[in-house]
Amino acid sequence: MGRWERGGLRLSHSHLPELSNSNYRQPFSTVMAGLVLVPAVLYLPLAIERNKVWRDQFTFWSKTLEVSPNSSRAHNNLGLAYFRKGLLDASRDEFKLAIRYEPDHA
Length: 106
Hints:
Elements: E1 4-5, E2 8-9, H1 22-53, H2 57-67, H3 72-84, H4 88-101
Antiparallel strand pairs: 1-2
Helix pairs in contact: 2-3, 3-4
């Protein structure tokens, strides 16, 4: 078929560098390892810190309300966390706030 094959340019392997050669593999492997490991190491302390927020429902929804104080979902779920702990007054207050911010979901 020559240079053209089915409407596209056919590449000859003789024009491409030999990628299986160890001279090319070693730098490529080192660069790829660096591209993966450097961000992972940099983000590790942030991930560890963030996991403290996820330790239980009460902590998670309390922190969520620090960021989004008008979130009816966060107030509802914090009310549920209070309810499960037997803190009925705090639970009622959170449920009232959830209804105030989104009365259609009551």
